[in-house]
Write a structure and sequence with these properties.
disordered C terminus, alpha/beta, single chain
Length: 93
């Protein structure tokens, strides 16, 4: 789902930061961003590290973004599926 949203926003010319808990130089992360940029002809697609299970990681991302030069942002996407969170989102009976 995250890659579909990312591609759709990129096609519309959005400036997007795709957040990942993986290292941003990991091959699967690099390939995904490069593929979306090439497919959509949008170079304003970036990735940053942020693990939402860690308050320190979230704080580091927010500080980096808020103190950086670039302040235009159309979307931040963090759409990883975690197996251990699955039951949390399922309906409670």
């Amino acid at each position: 789902m995250g890659s579909t949203i990312l591609e759709s926003l990129a096609q519309r010319g959005a400036h997007v930061i795709a957040l990942t808990d993986q290292p941003i130089d990991a091959p699967e992360v690099t390939l995904m961003i490069e593929a979306v940029r090439e497919l959509t002809s949008n170079e304003r697609i970036f990735t940053e590290h942020c693990d939402f299970l860690s308050i320190e990681s979230v704080r580091a991302f927010c500080t980096k973004f808020l103190t950086g030069k670039e302040h235009r942002l159309d979307a931040i996407i963090y759409a990883h599926e975690y197996q251990h969170l699955g039951p949390f989102f399922s309906s409670q009976e």
